[in-house]
Amino acid sequence: MTLQVLFIRRFDAAALSGGRKGMRATSVLHILEETVRRCGSRPAVIDGNKTITYAQLAGEAQLLGKALSKVLQGAVQKPVMLFMDKSCLCITAMFGVLYSGNIYVPMDVKTPLDRFLSIQQTLKSTCILTTAAEALLLRKTGYEGEVLLYEELLEKQKDHERIQNGQCAVSKLPEKVGVRTVDTDLMYILFTSGSTGAPKGVAVTHRSVIDYIEDFQKEVRIGAEDVLGNQTPFYTDMSLKDIYMGVKAGAAVCIIPQKYFMSPKRLLQCLEDKRVTSLAWVPTAYRIVAQFDGLSKVRPQYLRRFLFSGETMPVPVYQYWKGKYPDAEFIQQYGPTEITGACTSFRVTKDYREGETIPIGKPFPNTGLLLLDEEDREIRSGDMERIGEICIYGTCLAAGYYNNPQKTREVFVQNPLVTTHESLLYRTGDLARWDGDGNLIFVSRKDDQIKHGGRRIEPGEIEAAAIAVEEIQACCCVHNVQKDALALYYIGETDERELIRKLQDRLPKYMIPTIFHKKEMLPTLANGKLNRRLMGEWENG
Hints:
By secondary structure, the chain is α/β, with parallel strands linked by helices. It has 3 domains: 52-182, Rossmann fold (3-Layer(aba) Sandwich); 212-444, 3-Layer(aba) Sandwich (Rossmann fold), CATH 3.40.50.12780; 457-540, GMP Synthetase, Chain A, domain 3. A 9-stranded mixed beta sheet has the order 2-1-10-9-11-12-13-14-15. Strand 22 (450-452) and strand 23 form a beta hairpin. Helix 3 (54-71) packs across helix 7 (150-165), helix 8 (206-220) crosses helix 9 (240-249) and helix 11 (283-291) packs across helix 12. It is globular, with a radius of gyration of 24 Å. The N and C termini lie far apart (66 Å).
């Protein structure tokens, strides 16, 4: 009898709480185990030529969890750094850490040593899990501390199981680690950019992830037959849409190598070969395909669902994809890292035209949302003229910044509209307004405001006007401090004079840039978002 069959039978007998009708899961592990019970033989992760099933994923994760628990001497709720590139091994490692009762911290394998050490200091942890190959990369950074090798831990645990069972091979699943996880336990920590200081570790609980993927499935309706084409690195929160939505639905996650996004034809051929049905990408990734008209060369036939978040989708890019897939679903979502994946959603059902902005939508059921003005007064739906800061509350909130109570208190604050009890909300720093249908329209970042000519200007408004120009594919507005001038970096087939003429139809004179930089590509961060800081440094360097 195969390992897989035994795995499924064991979970049938266990009647785990995550699979009991009418009972809520208290850990994402319950959700994984219920999926194994339902469809353990289905593909969980497609990684190049390697495919692992849900039964294999959970079985190996449990072995790893037992091995980690021994190394950590039974400690729980300790951060374990995963120095691993996105792969099926990395996903297994995430669940392995959770099975040991601890917190996983995915890392960028290209992280500079200083940043790596800063994160390590914040975590107050020296537990680093990596593979043999990636350990060599870590050593090249200059790191000299102790590391745990995935392969060694797993093999030692397998040997232990063989000896324990008196058999030459593992013929049954190991007993799970004797750790009880509750939904308020921390699940993972993701580190934000350190552009304004030391990196901040956003700590998220099991409950936040459980509620998110349950609401996400209701909104998006992912099924076991779906194949999710992963674009984002695992150290960004957008990967939740792939990994945990896949686990919830029993769908397969197809890991797309990052290098493919530099070659649209190769990228699209991968989507076709792997029969990918659903994409959750940042708009920049969609734009790369549109910029080179990749879909005219290779049009993947299985795609039927397109999600985008991280930035507002430019209308020309949406129009391009919609033109190629007129019957597909297009869904825009919004949510910072501190909000666990996403907190608003908008299903695009109409044709947006030049000059319009696609809304970020309405909040998820587990999410409370307020639009507050500078005096913390609520801007209600129906008031379409005023701009306010998006403030979020509910089970979607992160637990705060790990080992950083000061920064936590700055943005996780008491709801100013609640005076009877403690009710925390997160001040996103994002500015938005309501449209006539009660949907939010993203405007800009609060801290991106530019003081120019005695006026406070939102660069997002300028960028929205520029991206509405048909020839413009991407843009970013920054402040030239020395000249007190607005500078626009852009990709597009138009000249400066023509662009100014078209902007004059959309913006007051004082908001029209006077410096223009036409580029073949704009710099992006690892998560695919535009690197505004770098372009600001170019302008003022």
